[in-house]
From TrEMBL:
CDD domains: MopB_3, MopB_CT_3. Gene3D superfamilies: 2.40.40.20, 3.40.50.740, ADC-like domains, Dimethylsulfoxide Reductase, domain 2, Formate dehydrogenase/DMSO reductase. Belongs to the prokaryotic molybdopterin-containing oxidoreductase family. This is Dehydrogenase. The keyword Metal-binding applies. InterPro entries: Asp_de-COase-like_dom_sf, MoPterin_dinucl-bd_dom, Mopterin_OxRdtase, Mopterin_OxRdtase_4Fe-4S_dom, Prok_Mopterin_Oxidored, YoaE_C. One of its GO terms (molecular function) is metal ion binding. Pfam families: Molybdop_Fe4S4, Molybdopterin, Molydop_binding.
Amino acid sequence: MNTHVRTTIGHSACPHDCPSTCALNVEIIDGQVGRFYGAKDNSYTAGVICAKVARYAERVHHPDRLLKPLIRAGAKGEGAWKEASWDAALDHVAEKFIAAEAKHGSETVWPYYYAGTMGLVQRDSINRLRHAKKYSNTFDSFCTNLAWTGWMMGAGALQGVDPREMAKSDCVVIWGTNAVVTQVNVMTHATRARKERGAKIVVIDIYDNATMKQADLGLILRPGTDGALACAVMHVLFRDGMADRAFLAEYTDDPAGLEAHLRERTPEWAAAITGLSVAEIETFARLVGTTKRTFFRLGYGFSRQRNGAVNMHAALSIPAVTGAWAYEGGGAFHSNSGVFKLDTRLIEGREMAVSGIRHLDQSKIGRILTGDREALYDGPPVTAMLIQNTNPANVTPEQRLVKQGFLRDDLFTCVHEQFMTDTAKLADVVLPATMFVEHDDIYKGGGQQHVTLGPKLVEPPLGPRPNLYVIEELAKRLGVANKPGFGLTARQHIDIMLDKRGLGSFAELQEKRFVDMQPPFEDAHFVNGFGHPDGKFRFRPDWINTPAPNKPPKSMGTQGDYARLPAYPDHVDLIEGADEIHPFRLATSPARSFLNSSFTETPGSLKREGRPELLLNPLDAAKLDLSEGDVVEIGNNRGEVALHVKLFDGVLSGVVIAEGIWPNSAHLNGEGINTLTSADSPPPYGGLVVHDTHVWVRKVDNVPGNGSGRGTGERLEIRTLLN
């Protein structure tokens, strides 16, 4: 009997939608993955990864993983399926696409994807099929628009201070991101600065989350009021002589105009808007004003408001006033996505793109699938979809419209997935997908500076196939396999891309594992000038004409109520504010054990998260006669969601938090939290406003089920309107 167990270590990168893009060491035991570890020799990952990825074997070996192609055998959403061969399933998909195109034209087909994998080959190859077939384009509005737009308005380039410089700071300001939960490596470098330099950590957020608990100074403010805080801080900096006037004169566009504008933006003014005290605002301003090596780590969360681009620009303006950019360990960082410059034109088939093909906003999928003419840009209805790397029936706003659209009899949907997600349940064809250790790909980390290879480490189970396989096979059946970019393996695509960037080949990068692309100090700190043509940081942004990575095409035009955007950093009351009917403001903040809708199926994550809950201030609960564990229904004109109450004094009165994107079925009435969120476009370039929602709260009786949090889909009986 052979009892020898062979264990090796493979190397990869975390593929999920997280700025950290951690370099991984993967334990491989007799051809199967075991434990996952952070690579200690990667200077950003530094050996630390989040607990959910450390347990990734739970996903790879999960008993509910999809293993065979499935074709719907009953009514949509009924859950009746018949197994099919890959050839039969793909033939069926191609036939449906061809029939849809014959009836409505090519734009009726909408390939739909996002960031379930961040690998450049497996994620982006769907665009090659899109362009080859002249299917509808997608306007990416999910994640980065508001934050990147606000950053670009000020800095003019999507890059910043080396994030590893946090360890060399005397003050680290973590603003609008729960880094312990969403970017654990931020804390690695921030806590090193505290340990080695005695640095102070400031955390600014809307509730007392896991990151706030690590802070020396924690500031809890009302959602959507970050611009007011930033303006009051800059008011104090000018008022008390802490503004770096030499830096301002050399590197900024209009410091005198900014100072005049801020004279009325006092701490008292901001306190009334933000819910902070005057003392808290003054303390924060003095700290950053007297600490030149202050590092502003600006996240995504605080930008996901209708005024989110303004909030980002205002917060980014503070280090320009203090002159912190001039110092190692000082300045600001949001994303390094602009530094990599990897050429993905062949992967995406961009040379086949033609003008005149419409763009559809991915956030408005509910409106699009229910025939909203404005959302469809007066084009044909969407009657066929291929969905990879995203779960729109769970993660997109206005869920009732989304579900209504997917249930249309004249819509054909193919979903390529790893698990039976909320979206897969509504599909006509479901194809099983590989996981990242089972295929080749390459990754770039926007939250850091490395390009990291993710080679295939193990064989997948019999059945699942990579995204690239699906795109290639559909291209053959749809008559475009002879077009540029098709017929290449993932490794060949990576070889071409690396060679164009001067980074060698797949084999060479496999030996190195990752390559550091961090720009030199002078570029990262904008010593040679900011990214605008005049080299100046802009306090007076051109909200309409400034280039940005997510700027909508001309056919879509400027988005939202852009006429109200301010001339200087400011608080703009564009948010969906509380009112008499909707007295609470809701944010859908990330849960520690989930990542968007991923990891909601793994036993470890489910055990740690428990059930969907609403974090409610005890003072509000007392007024509403609510106790711990009571069931409430929260809602607005978009719908209602039922979940349990968790009393929590770390959230301000009038604010409620629902952590995580739980599956819709995990809620007591079977409807997920994005039933409540809006697909409205924020100015100026669009985006997602999932933390900008007003709601009412109603107590309910006659709770269906056993109270475990698993929904039955039954309507709850409303007892009392609480407002």
